[in-house]
């Protein structure tokens, strides 16, 4: 595997993402020149075992120390096992696992050593995508928006559209696909909407030993507690203008807001909080989107999708409606971003992270030390 990727032309990149919900690692191939999507390729998934998940979760909110080291080893090993299955790869985009994110104070930490993966897999690896943006005053997140822009154009969407990712945390990208460069003023506005599945996962894990509320079955039986919902919406985060981003556990106290409720009512209320955070986010869009396309695991929850349909003023559908794969979009995003980094193209801009000027974040590590270009 692995050959020089050059400055132009279409290459095969493999993107890998380990998200905040800690279910596992997603990996996907993408053929691209870093500007346009040429072709989507094979994808793969490796779930974390319960023990691995515990080791990673023990590192959440920490910046260094033995828990961080242990989490990094688990993340790296899981990626090594999964990424080694792919062939014909020119470049890997390795996001790693976010353990802590506080861009204005400490910075942002994604663990897993991309240089070690490059050496072991024999392919150049682009990693540490967020630090350069944070150093230039940006939030370091979200980074998928440049890829959402390429997706909108690939899908032939003409009017303004929203991409809503519902993982552990929610993030919205407003795209004007009529503007051809993602870094051009007015093409993108992006930010985290609030907590998505993380508080609900934590609740059902703690109370029922379940990983998540499969199909929204629990929430469907419950009633939303409007008092708790109002307290949640009083959080200043929602009215704050973008740019803004969140750490996984920034809203951990939400689970306390529902602690007195029955399992079903608590699940219904946390699900409603996710949808309400998204509804609040719409006020920040430069123009109303013609529709919102949902990606990430939350789109598999019909109760959440129904709540979104009721609370947004435009049609809401899974990204599959325009031919995209909502389980792999983030992995594909880091394949796309890796090619941009290797070619010196920006990966974030003032509209996506609040960074001072468009910047390409990421370190390129080579298997043997030569220049990838
Ligand atoms: N069938 C389902 N029913 C209900 N919820 C689901 C279903 N499938 C997935 N989910 C939810 O989606 C979550 C996984 O989403 P996803 O893989 O997009 O998260 P992530 O990539 O780890 O997070 P992030 O985007 O915040 O980094 C699960 O933990 C669960 O809460
Ligand atoms: C710091 C960090 O890892 N943030 C994640 C997280 O998960 C969802 C949301 O919060 C988003 O801001 C980001 O991930 C996606 C892939 C992004 O950067 O676009």
TrEMBL record:
It comes from the Bacteria. SUPFAM superfamilies: Actin-like ATPase domain (SSF53067). Catalyzes the specific phosphorylation of 1,6-anhydro-N-acetylmuramic acid (anhMurNAc) with the simultaneous cleavage of the 1,6-anhydro ring, generating MurNAc-6-P. Is required for the utilization of anhMurNAc either imported from the medium or derived from its own cell wall murein, and thus plays a role in cell wall recycling. It catalyses: 1,6-anhydro-N-acetyl-beta-muramate + ATP + H2O = N-acetyl-D-muramate 6-phosphate + ADP + H(+). Belongs to the anhydro-N-acetylmuramic acid kinase family. One of its GO terms (molecular function) is kinase activity. The keyword Kinase applies. This is Anhydro-N-acetylmuramic acid kinase. Keywords: ATP-binding, Carbohydrate metabolism, Kinase, Nucleotide-binding, Transferase. ATP binds at residues 19-26. Its EC number is 2.7.1.170. The keyword Membrane does not apply. It is an enzyme of class 2 (transferase). It comes from Sulfitobacter alexandrii. Pathway: Cell wall biogenesis; peptidoglycan recycling; Amino-sugar metabolism; 1,6-anhydro-N-acetylmuramate degradation. GO terms for biological process: 1,6-anhydro-N-acetyl-beta-muramic acid catabolic process; amino sugar metabolic process; peptidoglycan turnover.
């Amino acid at each position: 595997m692995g050959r020089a990727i050059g400055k132009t032309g279409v290459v095969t990149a493999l993107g890998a993402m380990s998200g905040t919900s800690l279910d596992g690692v997603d990996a996907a191939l993408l053929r691209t020149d870093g500007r346009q999507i040429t072709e989507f390729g094979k994808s793969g998934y490796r779930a974390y075992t319960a023990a691995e998940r515990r080791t990673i979760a023990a590192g959440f909110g920490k910046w260094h120390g033995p828990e961080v080291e242990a989490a990094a080893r688990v993340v790296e090993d899981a990626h090594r096992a999964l990424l080694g299955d792919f062939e014909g790869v020119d470049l890997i985009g390795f996001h790693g696992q976010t353990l802590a994110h506080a861009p204005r104070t400490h910075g942002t930490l994604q663990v897993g050593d991309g240089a070690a993966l490059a050496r072991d897999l024999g392919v150049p690896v682009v990693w540490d995508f967020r630090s350069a943006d944070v150093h230039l005053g940006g939030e370091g997140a979200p980074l998928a928006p440049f890829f959402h822009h390429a997706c909108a154009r690939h899908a032939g969407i003409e009017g303004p559209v929203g991409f809503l990712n519902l993982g552990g945390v929610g993030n919205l990208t407003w795209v004007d696909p009529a503007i051809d460069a993602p870094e051009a003023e007015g093409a993108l506005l992006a930010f985290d909407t609030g907590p998505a599945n993380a508080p609900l996962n934590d609740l059902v894990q703690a109370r029922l030993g379940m990983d998540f509320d499969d199909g929204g079955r629990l929430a469907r039986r419950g009633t939303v507690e409007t008092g708790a919902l109002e307290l949640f919406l009083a959080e200043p985060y929602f009215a704050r203008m973008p740019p803004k981003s969140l750490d996984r556990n920034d809203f951990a106290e939400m689970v306390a807001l529902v602690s007195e409720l029955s399992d079903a009512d608590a699940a219904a209320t946390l699900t409603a909080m996710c949808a309400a955070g998204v509804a609040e986010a719409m006020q920040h869009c430069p123009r109303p989107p013609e529709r919102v396309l949902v990606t990430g695991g939350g789109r598999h929850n019909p109760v959440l999708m129904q709540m979104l349909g009721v609370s947004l003023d435009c049609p809401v559908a899974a990204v599959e409606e325009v031919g995209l794969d909502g389980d792999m979009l983030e992995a594909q995003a880091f394949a796309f971003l890796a090619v941009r980094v290797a070619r010196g193209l920006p990966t974030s801009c003032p509209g996506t992270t609040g960074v001072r000027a468009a910047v390409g974040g990421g370190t390129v590590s080579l298997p043997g030390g030569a220049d990838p270009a």
